[in-house]
Specification:
Elements lengths: L7 H7 L35 H14 L2 E5 L2 H9 L6 E6 L4 H12 L3 E6 L4 H8 L4 E5 L11 H10 L3 E5 L4 H4 L9 E5 L13 E5 L2 H14 L5 H12 L1 H19 L5 E5 L6 E6 L2 H8 L7 E2 L9 E4 L14 E5 L5 H12 L1
Parallel strand pairs: 2-3, 2-4, 4-5, 5-6, 10-11
Antiparallel strand pairs: 1-7, 6-7, 8-9, 9-12, 11-12
Helix pairs in contact: 1-2, 2-9, 3-4, 5-6, 10-12
The structure holds pyridoxal-5'-phosphate.
Length: 352
């Protein structure tokens, strides 16, 4: 099922299942195997695993491409970045996830790439930077600034320049944004976040528009061994089954929180891209006032990462690698599935 004709809510439930045959389990079980009897298609545990395949079928159907699973979002990003030739120019958002910037800076430091950081919300600037680029990396919304890229416009310009267009779709998920339909070549995910959705799995995925890119990405996974565990693939697929309901609920709670938080006297700014369940608030008192929230909440958990059923928050500049253009007092909120009134009361009392 490459591109499902069904509604995404249905696809999330039915894709990647064994056939409806007597005595088949409804779910592909956890296949714990390092090797298989020779002569078939699987051969060795680093090459293939049926638990990965089930997850890949479901995610691929939702994104409209071929999915390849990885040990983490960072492993997926590394595999995609390794597609560009040595010395290539890569265009990337200046506010990408810090790990993405870390990998790009590492390529630059080792003389393997030249990176131009851009304001990804400025499509004209990105198009101008794309000339002679081998890859244009998009993150939209960006983490944690929540800027939005005009993916179709950037894709047209970047492809005309011969660049591979990549979108990190972690924040939006395929339910809110389908970059391959908008002209991108490759999508990457930290499946650790919304897709797995329960803060108990570390996994990544690459979804490609063409079989050639899928083969190249699979070859990288086999070569570098950045494979997910079968149990985590099973759990990520189980999480993906409920992604539509989780995201729907988290998004409606996020919208209501944005409405209530806007004009809150403790806040300088409330950033929300209009969809999804991540909100960035900028605390008037700066870093100290933002850090103080950490000890004052009961429901909201102070933790890095996002996209789980439990609401979490983090002052992003606590990480030295975060871009200096992110305000010191910016706190990223990941809205979970608790009741909106409880979440608002807990946060408002911490802010107060
Ligand atoms: N992409 C984005 C947007 C992220 O927020 C993260 C992690 O926070 C990653 C990629 C990396 O994913 P992982 O932590 O699963 O390696």
């Amino acid at each position: 099922m490459l591109d499902s004709p069904l509604h995404p809510d249905t696809t999330a439930v039915v894709a990647g299942r064994p056939p409806h045959v007597a005595d088949q389990p409804l779910n592909v079980p956890v296949h714990l195997a390092s090797t298989y009897v020779a002569g078939g298609e699987l051969e060795y545990g680093r090459f293939a695993n049926p638990s990965w395949t089930a997850f890949e079928e479901a995610l691929g159907a939702l994104e409209g491409g071929r999915a390849v699973s990885f040990a983490s979002g960072m492993a997926a990003i590394a595999a995609v970045l390794s597609l560009v030739p040595g010395g290539a120019r890569i265009v990337a958002p200046r506010h990408s996830y810090t790990g993405t910037i870390g990998q790009l800076d590492d390529l630059v430091a080792r003389g393997l790439a030249v990176v131009e950081y851009v304001d990804i919300a400025d499509a004209d600037a990105v198009a101008a930077a794309s000339v002679d680029a081998a890859m244009v990396w998009i993150e939209s919304p960006t983490n944690p600034a929540l800027e939005l890229a005009d993916i179709p416009a950037i894709a047209v310009a970047a492809r005309a320049a011969g660049a591979i267009v990549v979108v990190d779709n972690t924040f939006a998920t395929p339910l809110l944004q389908r970059p391959l339909e908008q002209g991108a070549d490759i999508v990457v995910h930290s499946a650790t976040k919304y897709i797995a959705g329960h803060s108990d799995v570390l996994m990544g995925a690459v979804v490609t528009a063409t079989p050639e890119h899928a083969a190249a990405i699979t070859a990288r996974r086999t070569l570098h061994g950045a494979t997910p565990s079968p149990l985590e693939a099973f759990l990520a697929l189980r999480g993906l089954r409920t992604l539509p309901v989780r995201l729907d609920r988290a998004q409606s709670t996020a919208r209501e929180l944005v409405r209530r938080l806007t004009d809150h006297p403790a806040l300088k700014e409330v950033r929300y891209p209009g969809f999804g369940a991540i909100i960035s608030i900028v605390i008037r008192g700066g870093a100290d006032a933002a850090d103080a929230i950490g000890g004052r909440t009961d429901l909201w958990v102070h933790a890095t990462s996002l996209g789980g059923v439990e609401s979490t928050f983090e002052r992003r500049r606590r990480w030295p690698a975060e871009a200096p253009t992110i305000p010191e007092g910016l706190v990223r909120l990941s809205v979970g599935l608790e009741h909106v009134d409880d979440l608002y009361d807990d946060l408002a009392s911490a802010l107060g």
